[in-house]
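[job 4417] fold queue: 2 targets
>>> target A
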Amino acid sequence: MTSFITLLATSNAATGKTQSPLSMFVLIAAMAGVMYFALIRPQKKRQKEEQATRDNIQLGDEVTTIGGIIGKVVTIKEDSITIETGVGSDSSKIKFSRWSISSNNTATAKIEAERKAAKEAEEAERAARIEENAGKSNKKKSKKNKDSLED
């Protein structure tokens, strides 16, 4: 960033033009604004979503840790979660810090199922509308044919 400012200052000096301190301040403020909206804001939004995911974990949910371990939640405490991995006699319980949970697979599956159901309902409604419109146009055509036959 400083090299960019130095480059601007030297290019202006080479051309013989002087730049006001106000324009330099505006340039720095604009760069800071771009940095905020390009880097900081999206990161904070992701962190809030991850925290909401961690706060909404319930017993029996299937979760994935940041290390890639998948298991079912057995106990939930204030700052830790115990998950059970494996099935039957091969299962083991592992205790993790709450921050190490990457995703809640059960909640993700529910959201995907809701989206799929909404999409299917929308498609069914669209098909019914198309069928209704086709029926109306057939009635109009038959009415025109009857009128032309009567003449």
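>>> target B
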Amino acid sequence: MASSAIHLAIAKKYLEKHKDLNYKEVIKGTLYPDAAEDNDKTHYTDKNRGSDNASHIRGKVNLYAYLKEHAVLNDFELGWFLHLVTDYLFFLECFTTEYLLSKSYQEFCDELYHAYYCTNLYMEEKYDISKDDFREYPNEYYPGIPYEECILSKERIDHFIERVSSIDMENYVKKIKAHKRNIQP
């Protein structure tokens, strides 16, 4: 899963481009899937998602299953969907298959969560994220440290945030429904 700071940065950039949306509802929906008690349920995780690290991680989110249950997205559900899209694309686009296969699941998680601590402060400052953004789910907030080299470079994060926040969600939803599976925008 992408960090809460990444999710918030994407949601805030998306909201800058879609001012007609309810800001609080989108932010609340964006944080909800990780704050909920059953992450597999809120992420529509495939039960048979593969045993190798790459397919196991990349099978965490099922966008089509989510859309089957949420035919018309209100602002909260749009935030939730944006979260799922972010997680799906994060593992697909930010980490190569070779890298994921070279690590055990535990090694990958250790490196990933270390990277979150190394990038959170950077994202808080660059994308105007504060503890106040976590008011609905305060347990999701954790402060960062000054940036240091890790598996997530600042450039990769910035590019990813810009890319995902620029997706035309209406057309992307249609594309997923037409293919009846996860598919890149």
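[job 4417] complete. Note on B: The mean pLDDT is 95.
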